[in-house]
Recover the amino acids of this structure.
């Protein structure tokens, strides 16, 4: 069984997130997704999420292409996660190109093309602008 692992915030879930997860799932038989916790997003990514960790995790885990979700609490947990989950392939969008090559010692590292024209920050801006 080929196990694929990826990570993300997945706030205001959109087509870019879905296409990434569908393509990641297509690389193997079992897809695990690390969902950034609210604390991790705030402390490490300076991101304030519209949706809580619980809501974001519930949405991602409900997808038919996702087999398991777990919390991403630190930048440093990936090596341990590769071992713990016995991941064969690590996947991220190519906005992260090269950033996780250190994981090549543990599994295949694959960067997939990011879906152009859609982002959570853009969605937030549309909502803010529509509020007037
Ligand atoms: N993504 C994409 N196309 C978009 C937007 C996002 O392919 N239009 C991909 C990103 O490249 C990433 C995944 O969807 O692989 C999740 O995106 P985010 O929720 O923005 O995740 P991010 O904040 O980049 O966190 O340790 C890694 C981090 O947790 C990634």
């Amino acid at each position: 069984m080929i196990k694929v692992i990826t990570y993300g915030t997945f706030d205001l879930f959109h087509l870019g997130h879905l296409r990434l997860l569908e393509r990641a799932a297509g690389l193997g038989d079992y897809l695990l997704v690390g969902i950034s916790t609210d604390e991790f997003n705030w402390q490490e990514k300076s991101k304030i999420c519209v949706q809580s960790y619980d809501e974001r995790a519930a949405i991602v885990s409900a997808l038919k292409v996702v087999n398991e979700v777990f919390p991403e609490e630190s930048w440093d947990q990936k090596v341990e996660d590769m071992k713990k989950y016995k991941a064969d392939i690590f996947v991220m969008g190519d906005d992260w190109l090269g950033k996780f090559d250190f994981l090549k010692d543990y599994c295949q590292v694959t960067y997939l093309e990011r879906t152009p024209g859609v982002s959570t920050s853009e969605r937030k801006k549309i909502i803010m602008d529509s509020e007037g």
Q: What stands out?
A: The mean pLDDT is 96. Residues 120-131 form the longest helix (12 residues). The beta strands are 3-8, 30-36, 68-72, 89-93, 108-112. The pocket of C2G is lined by residues 7-10, 16-17, 20, 36, 45, 72, 92-93, 95, 114-115, 118-119 (CB under 6 Å).
